[in-house]
Design a protein that fits this description.
Radius of gyration: 13 Å
Helix content: under 10%
Largest sheet: 11 strands, mixed
Distance between the termini: 34 Å
Number of strands: 11
Order of helices and strands: EEEEEEEEEEE
Shape: globular
Structural class: mainly beta
């Protein structure tokens, strides 16, 4: 399973680092996507990283502020979120895929508020 953690309450301009940790399997062969869903809105993809880490993509609205990375030795993928904005408030989920094998992590709440 995947477990997302690291959410919390932060002021605008602040930072958080989310973690997506795998248990029971190795993340080495999995591409990972971070999604988020704000109240009343559809789930959207925020960032993704290939299994090798060589391909990375970001939602336009988070480019330059968020950084995705992976540490396969720790079986964990991270999402460093800087310069957080009110509109980044959402439940963040991680999703892993390797071929037909997929895993969803439970969400972690990120609240940006002054």
């Amino acid at each position: 399973q995947l477990q997302a953690s690291g959410g919390g309450l932060v002021q605008p301009g602040g930072s958080l680092r989310l973690s997506c940790a795998a248990s029971g399997f190795t993340l080495d062969y999995y591409a990972i996507v971070w999604f988020r869903q704000a109240p009343g809105k559809e789930r959207e993809g925020v960032s993704c990283i290939s299994s090798s880490g060589g391909n990375i993509h970001y939602l336009d609205s988070v480019k330059g502020r968020f950084t995705i990375s992976r540490d396969n030795a720790k079986n964990t993928v991270y999402l460093q979120m800087n310069s957080l904005k009110l509109e980044d408030t959402a439940v963040y989920y991680c999703y892993g895929r390797s071929g037909l094998k997929t895993y969803w992590g439970q969400g972690t709440q990120v609240t940006v508020s002054s």
